[in-house]
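agent: user wants the full assembly modeled, not chains individually. Plan: 1) parse entity lines 2) check alphabet per entity 3) run joint structure prediction 4) return tokens. Steps 1-2 passed, two entities, 776 residues total. Proceeding.
--- entities ---
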Amino acid sequence: MNETIKKDTSGVGLVEKQFFTFAGPPHEMKLDSGARLGPITIAYETYGRLNAEKTNAVLVCHALSGDAHAAGYHREDDPRPGWWDFMIGPGRGIDTNRYFVICSNILGSCMGSTGPCTYRPDGSKPYGLSFPFVTIGDMVKAQKALMDHLGIQKLVSVIGGSIGGMQVLEWCIQFPEMTASAIPIATTTRHSALSIAFNETARQSIMADPNWNSGDYYGGAKPDAGLAVARMIGHITYLSDESLRQKFGRRLQNREDFSFQFDADFQVENYLRYQGKKFVDRFDANSFLYITKAADYFDLNRKYGDGSLVRAFAFAKARFLVISFTSDWLYPTFQSRDITQALKKNGLDVSFCEIKADCGHDAFLLPLNRQSDLIKGFLNGVFTETQT
Amino acid sequence: MNETIKKDTSGVGLVEKQFFTFAGPPHEMKLDSGARLGPITIAYETYGRLNAEKTNAVLVCHALSGDAHAAGYHREDDPRPGWWDFMIGPGRGIDTNRYFVICSNILGSCMGSTGPCTYRPDGSKPYGLSFPFVTIGDMVKAQKALMDHLGIQKLVSVIGGSIGGMQVLEWCIQFPEMTASAIPIATTTRHSALSIAFNETARQSIMADPNWNSGDYYGGAKPDAGLAVARMIGHITYLSDESLRQKFGRRLQNREDFSFQFDADFQVENYLRYQGKKFVDRFDANSFLYITKAADYFDLNRKYGDGSLVRAFAFAKARFLVISFTSDWLYPTFQSRDITQALKKNGLDVSFCEIKADCGHDAFLLPLNRQSDLIKGFLNGVFTETQT
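--- prediction returned ---
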């Protein structure tokens, strides 16, 4: 299995998940809901080297089901690298020869950071639904604590797609002095009714599973059936009509004719069932509930702008590269245009690029040269400027 | 409560559901799957009067969750009329002063026609999953038997939207001599991978409900939770991003601020939960499985054209009015254009109209004057021609 790494000596190589714990009592973090949470552990990884002046850090924010493992391999026999490996590495879009890249698991997730599947401070049992609600803003606050811990006072850039892009926008508003630049990708400033509708349907699917048991299922049977359907719903929204047509069309799965049974006759059915099943092995149903709700609550206009997106960005200082994809119908391009316009009305330096891609919302996770080149060029300009 | 009827004296008034039973042993109907089914009961309603020559009949085909009750009221205190009441009645789009209108419940449904919730011929228990698979073609064959029973040899028109539109297209191919004209609305000739994906996810939601019990739940607890989520998934696809924005946006449900709970904070969440709950009171989960699978199997190119839609329509003779809606993303306009082109290449008389509407796929169920006027004008032309 050394083959894997040998094949890919151009990347960041072996990496390790690290942990940072803070907000221990009585210094619990105050959340947007008013509740307090602590201690908080944040799982994170870093790639490249922090320079002596600590001025070369780039923060990468992940989406709903992502984690801190953005690049490289955990073990020599890992079959696959981190989720954005094609983007992060020596000479890649986010060049680790130059930048110190940090990716941390979001608060509320189940990939090493504190979330509903974490044990309560009293050690009695996992939080379950007693875990307080966290917002995208809270996730960013926890990331800020990690930056403080690492001694980083200013980030060359904060970069992320989808819910990661929401975090990017929060960073620019909450901590304008710390963000030299920002790259929000395939994202929005407020979840549309359509996005909320899909998320709510997915949540109802989990909550309809008797094994969910009001979130108290740790140690027993998990709500796998409900979570699998939730993932199938989500997965459809990450693709596009066109990509589904190209990838599957009406092709049948290992058969010449219809089964006239409730089997997965079509490849697309088989694919979705597989995605659902695979997901339940690695993700926690309660984390799915918490993070989708945080995304639904996300509304910069409401939180910072009193209904105006222009006002919401009034204190932002970053240089921006806004990226959208033509076939993304979850956060369509017009939403990225809205971001761009609001930033420009604040006199900020903004580049906007809509990338032609058939593959829907998930395009940002796919190795598109156009995206990597854009990010590389943009970071280069920002870095040159900030180091002088 | 007489108010209701008083308010609406312009419609068809009180109507009655009727039943027709055929295909009793040993004359069971041979289905597309090769299985045999019988006896078969078809529930239907009629509006207007059949003329002496029996040349003024119009068949209306309903969609997934519809039924035979297309117009009028069953009782004086009915709060609501049939599902297409604004379209069918004296002077309306389908004018009952002139036409004899028939609407029958599709085979496999649960609204009076034979389906999985019907008792087996031996009276032992409802069919459940022992009910054979039915296709859109089988549904049409059962409708044809009803026409024979009513003594109707030629239809002025066959009209329907969505899955009803699929039946319309099957009619024109299976029984070209019987269809003087056809109005397929918001429909397709083959389910796309996206449509299959949504249907399969909805089916998985039902089948994940422990109460579903492999379809054997009659007399016990029903898979309401799974069916409600399935309906929510379907319902989203019937609307549009724009209509959801207009109808709900991010408005909160009876509250000023977020609950920071898993309540229905947003109106759109509340609306979808309500739609899900309402649906389980009137629809059978197994029927949902069978009819969505029939829609997924629907593929005229494959069944009749050996991969060519032009060939599929080679024997059609009807005059066509093809209607689509701008915001329908389930069966987008390009699919109606494909139908139109294939018909034209067969030298058929085809009118095509894309109606501007923000309300998505379900637009055909809404009282749009443009749709009613188009249908009225088209039928008028056909009727005048066929009677001379």
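agent: reporting back. Residues 369-387 of chain A form the longest helix (19 residues). The longest strand of chain A covers residues 40-47.
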